[in-house]
Write a structure and sequence with these properties.
Blueprint (H helix, E strand, L loop, with lengths): L8 E19 L2 E12 L2 E8 L1 H15 L4 E13 L3 E6 L7 E3 L3 H15 L17 E2 L4
Helix pairs in contact: 1-2
Length: 144
Amino acid sequence: MIIRAKPATDFNGVVLVNSLEIGAVLIGSQRVPTVRFAIKQSGHKYKLLARGRQSGEVYAYALAAIGKGWEGLEAHIVAYPRPTLESGIVFIVAADEGGGITWHSGSELRATAVQILVDVLNGVAPTPPWPVMEAPFLRLESDN
């Protein structure tokens, strides 16, 4: 028996923390928290979406980096390309089953990001420095 996995794209580059936008995607009729951000790899910029738990992780690391005055964070990101009617192809960060994000940062930044994520989960996060989009970024028919 052959099991075919979704094709994935690996990005190795710098997440541009000031590019972050906070919003949602619609999956069926469910609104799922999502962040949209850019990664710069080999001189090219790519827009990626992270949703659910991954969106909180990207938010926390980006906020920690901004607190240190950094414009970017080196990362390895595994993402799935998805065709959309709205914008052609979008890359969605893989969830737990596909590798997701490996941040190349020191332990101090990681500790700060974890504390920010805990604060977010407890409802005491600071006001984000990024725009919060009212309209969903896009609609997906399913979570696959």
